[in-house]
Amino acid sequence: MKHILVTGFTGNVGHEVALHLKQRQAPLRCAVRDVEKARHAHGSEFEYVRLDFQHPETFESALAGIDRVFLMYPPETAFEPFHMFIRKAKEMGVRHIVYLSVKDVQYIPFIPHHKNERAIRRSGIPYTFLRAGYFMQNLNLFLLDELREQDRIYVPAGKGKTSFVDVRDVAEIGARALTEGERHVGCKHVLTGDQAMDFFEVAQLMTKILGRPIHYANPSAKEFKTYLLAKGLPEDYLNVVIGLHLVTKIGFAKGITNKYRTLTGSDPIRLEQYLRDYKHYWEKS
């Protein structure tokens, strides 16, 4: 029996995709850099296989017995080994890649997803692109420390609105694409929630739900970069983050779609529900 390979399992979306696939009783393997560490953290509920995009010698064994791949791009990964993995997948008979991309990627050539989508198309492997809006879960991951320590949202997005989407909804569509046959092949699913909000509105909603004042600092790109460089974040990563938030700042990120509802018949998770579900992340000890 062929299996689905889920990359990014120890992160955010990949783990949720694995959970959805397990609910669907789909045969899967979870790709991780350190199998023992993953098993210690997540138990033996899943089957693990070693995969490190920086080490091409791990590719063949990770792809053995695989015919579908949920593919994520780790931001610290160089293009050449990542694209080498795609070529290896083609060589080993993978017949469908579901790739986690970003909304409006076709207009943002400076981000890695633009090049990665092109590499997948050129490989000839049937694909589905999940072009996701701004993850709600950024608030409990990338933005978590500032919210817990400073009670502030700290991103250079100005007054621009963005179309937030819950990772759980994105993962559901990813799992559907991997298990529902030809229905999703060749599709570019643009996934958002049903609201577009600016970060001032997000801060107001968080204030209401958390019961303490949260504010949106609205730094300039220069202030943002200087501050986070001093905290040790890599410059290349920060440049990508700034570019993505610039898209929001100039008004290009506010578009919403009904793709999730079309594919599932259900309403997407709203930001208020996400904040209630994840409230414990921002509680102060």
Overview of this protein structure:
The protein has helices spanning about 15-25, 35-40, 60-65, 80-90, 110-125, 145-150, 165-180, 200-210, 220-230, 235-250, 260-265, 270-275; strands at about 5, 30, 50, 65-70, 95-100, 125-130, 135, 150-155, 165, 190, 215. With about 280 residues, the chain is of the alpha/beta class. The strands form three sheets. It has a seven-stranded parallel beta sheet with strand order 3-2-1-4-5-6-10, sandwiched between helices. Helix 4 packs parallel to helix 5 (about 110-125). The longest helix has 15 residues, at about 235-250.
Provide a short characterization of the protein structure:
The protein is an alpha/beta fold. The protein has helices at 13-23, 35-42, 59-63, 79-91, 112-123, 144-150, 167-179, 199-210, 221-230, 235-249, 259-264, 271-277, and strands spanning 3-6, 28-32, 48-50, 66-71, 96-102, 127-132, 134-135, 152-153, 164-165, 188-191, 215-216. The chain has a domain at 3-134 and 165-191: 3-Layer(aba) Sandwich (Rossmann fold), CATH 3.40.50.720.
